[in-house]
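Task card 7
Instruction: Convert sequence to structure tokens.
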Amino acid sequence: MEKEFQNMPRHYVLCFSGSCCRAGECLRHLAAKYGSPEGRIVKAVNNRFADGEDCRLYKPKQYVRMAYGMLHMYDDVLARHIADLRGEITRSFGNGTYYLMRNGLRAIKPAEQAFISETFRRYGYDGAVFDRYSDELSW
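Output:
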């Protein structure tokens, strides 16, 4: 189970309340138990507010399908559309983020995948196809 928590965001809020009735299904508690946060100081839920059923900081353990890489996304796109498509996507994310996503160095979240696919649909294509997909925890 520890492998699931290797991609835990650096400043993720953890919960160390062992008495909570939802601890076994709360991502914040599971991350505190199985993750390995870097540094001596971590952000944590105040135990006085970790009150089980009504906890406002409860985060269910859910998986989302992340996409990686866009190296072959334009393979079936007409040459006259490539510059405009790439331009729209690059302007939306910025050059740095676009190239991290393109090269598979940054995960492409479901909402970002939907935006990119919708951009392709506006040009008459079926949507975007990414290089690979991975089911990961939704932080």
